[in-house]
Amino acid sequence: MGAEIAQSLAFIRGRIAAAAARAGRSADSVSIVAVTKGQPPEAIRAAVEAGHTVFGENRVQEAKAKIPLCPGHLHWHMIGHLQSNKARDAVHFFDMVESIDSLSLAVEVNKFADKAAKTLPILLEVNVAGESSKFGYNPNTLLAQLLEINALPKLEIHGLMTVAPWSAEPEKVRPVFRKLREIKEQCEQKLGAPLPYLSMGMSGDFEVAVEEGATIVRIGTALFGPRPKLAREADGP
Ligand SMILES: *Cc1c(COP(=O)(O)O)cnc(C)c1O
User: Fold this and answer.
1) Eight-state DSSP code of residue 134
2) Rounded to the nearest 10 degrees, how much is the dihedral formed by the CA atoms of 139, 142, 143, 148?
3) For 110-123, what is each residue's pLDDT tens digit?
4) How far apart are CA 141 and CA 61, in angstroms?
5) What is the CATH number of the domain that holds 196?
6) Strands 155-161, 197-199: parallel, antiparallel or unpaired by DSSP?
7) What is the structure's pLDDT at 229?
8) Is the CB of 134 under 6 A from ligand 1?
9) Which of 18, 19, 65, 166 could form a disulfide with 210 if both were Cys (CB 3.0 to 4.6 A apart)?
10) What's residue 188's pLDDT?
């Protein structure tokens, strides 16, 4: 397993570097969150041996069981929908929450970060395509709530995240990535400060995302292979 993952990682890094070069960007400006939902701790250890340290999980419950079984120096991103009643655990287990999608959730996460004497980097998730099956802010609501979220003392807004609609043809979702970049620019204007992160692009579309400005790509299957069946079934909308 270890050699395969090291190979996939090198292959993905190469594709990212090529996509970044096409956009006149440096490959260093893009980092990979290795998405380990549905994968056992052994898969994570194999990626760690290949030099990887940043991982993503989409469920607090699964992360809570798995993270303690993994090496202690890793960085964990929460990338799935977060319910307010899981905010305390999310603050405890994750180094960044990429999926803040409402003011009430932000308030709750801020409260537990305060209790834990911790400042938490967050991304705001945007439902760019307005899909009813997906979580994430409507762009107008995001802009309306942005300053209130920014005023929460224990949260640091580092950028935006989106999950693009699924398509067999990655070129079709390019406008979604471009739009997220534009929304980020509107947020920067409103905040009067730069936002370094755009988390967009997954196994099927990360090259297009990098061409459109992604600084984080979240890669699961292209790195670890198909998820075990149970996790895949639980994946759906
Ligand atoms: C599962 C997941 C990914 C990774 O998906 P792959 O297609 O396996 O690369 C990325 N982002 C989120 C939010 C996910 O839930």
Assistant:
1) S
2) 180
3) 999 999 999 999 99
4) 29
5) 3.20.20.10
6) parallel
7) 63
8) no
9) 19
10) 98
The response to whether residue 35 sits with its C-beta less than 6 Å from ligand 1 reads yes
Distance, CA of 36 to CA of 227 (rounded, Å): 9
CA of 164 to the centre of ligand 1 (A): 10
Query: In the numeric block, which tokens belong to residue 36?
Result: 């380990």
* Domain-embedded: residue 235: no
Which residue's C-alpha comes closest to atom 10 of ligand 1?
Answer: 218
pLDDT in tens, 46-63: 999 999 999 999 999 999
56 C-alpha to ligand 1 centroid (Å)? 9
Domain of 83 in residue numbering reads as 2-225
pTM score: 0.95
* Res 105 pLDDT > 60: yes
| C-alpha 219 to ligand 1 mean position (Å) | 6
Q: Report the distance separating Cα 7 and Cα 113, nearest Å.
A: 38
Q: Is residue 42 part of a domain?
A: yes
- Decide whether any atom of ligand 1 lies within 6 Å of the 80 Cβ: yes
Could you read off the pLDDT of 168-191 as tens digits, one per residue?
Answer: 999 999 999 999 999 999 999 999
The Cα-based distances of 235 to 76, 83, 133, 220 in angstroms read 19, 16, 12, 12
Contact yes or no for 12/51 (Cβ under 8 A): no
- Ligand 1 mean position to 61 CA, how many Å? 17
